[in-house]
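Our collaborator T.R. sent over the components below with a one-line note: 'Predict the complex.' Nothing else. No constraints on interfaces, no templates requested, no preferences about which chain binds where. So this is a plain run: every listed entity goes in together, and whatever single assembly comes back becomes the starting point for the next discussion.
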Amino acid sequence: MAPLTSVPFDVAPFRFSGTVYGTLLNHRDALDALGASIHEAPYKAPPKSVVLYLKPRNTLAGPGDVVAVPSDAPELELGPSLGLVIGRTTCRVSEAQALDHVAGCVIVADIGVPHASFYRPQVRFKARDGFCPIGPRVVGLADLGDLGQLGIRVHVDGQLVHESSTAGWIRSPARLLAEVTDFMTLAPGDVLMTGVPHGAPRVRAGQRSVVEIKGLGRLENRFVAMAEAEP
Amino acid sequence: MKRARVAYAGAVHEATPHHDAGGARLRLADGRIVAEDAVVWLPPFEVGTVVALGLNYADHAKELAFNAQQEPLVFLKGPGALIGHRGQTRRPADATFMHYECELAVVIGRTARQVSRADAMDHVAGYTVANDYAIRDYLENWYRPNLRVKNRDTGTVLGPWLVDAGDIDAPPALDLRTLVNGVVTQRGNTRDLVFDIPFLIEYLSGFMTLAPGDVILTGTPEGVVDVRPGDEVVCEIDGIGRLVNTIVDDAVFGRA
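Returned assembly:
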């Protein structure tokens, strides 16, 4: 499993490590959508620290790859996220210096089996093979401008089904890196997703998705029923 | 056969146990015989995805007031948390309850995709000991257990040895224990796993392809206690190894 060799990039570290972390509920609209429930059981309180999850190496996929829809899930959710590609070892960075450690950004499609609870979702909702397409390319920070002002669009079978932007983050990329790397060192080639906006669109077997983030290109994938995806 | 990965004299080596009149030492693959404390012990194999089980011993689940489950509680860990035998694990100054978890770690040796229970053990390369620390102060009710509790730098200790699967009767029924400063604080036996190793491989490989180097930390029994800077924590599993770790404070890591 050579992760993402089809997504080369020309800024250091020039390749992905294969480690990809997601950030939960980092868009204000996604947290707001939970309403008062964030104070109720099982959560009892809104998240205080940054909440992360892992997309393991079996989930990694590239542009154009086919994603298998499991037979027990009629639909999948496709969460578009801006991914920060770590350029050099990042440990206990200050917010002011955090972005100096980022090589660039890339589109990540965070795919999951829809689930209502954020308490202790089963790993099988998020960690199936192919559930983390990344691409089509890594763009250096110098070419991107303000990371907090990038438009995000998702098309399914040519129809625009979701439109949002990176505005409205609870934690900016710099803030995220400062908090995360206080307890967890990120290595060159690691990817940290900055979060998925509210209302991730749904996709079914037989459909094609395109995730666009301004300046980062288009990440296209195709969804097929599990039986068709069998080797 | 059991093997370690160690750094010595400018390179990383595979090492095997060596016993002679000089006591227990290590034999590097190139023939050098060295003392166990002359090397830096690394996790004993190239670690891929780390899959961990919560509450997989009935007694520990009871200890933490959980009811029996229908499905394993699985979480994932990143590579940055890993350290080897004789390493140091940081306890942050603001923590009030940081505990070890002695666990049998099952290392995958052959790609496993939709493997049946009957065939599961064919995909196991071997075993090692894991000590998977948690800091309960940081537990929040979002994507439990959140990574700040369970995926901290230096928080997951693996080693000393990778023991070949063929050397251990399957499924393993091995006594395990943890000693803090020489006093036994945790005891269990791997036969008491709620979800046993063949089940876990069948379950996990049903939705995610397991690759060589992936490792399943099978959970810990009851008997977790708070550990403090200066404590020596030893996790032992009979036939697999004796994994030593020391708790250190923030100052060691240059934090005020």
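Summary for T.R.: Residues 173-180 of chain A form the longest helix (8 residues).
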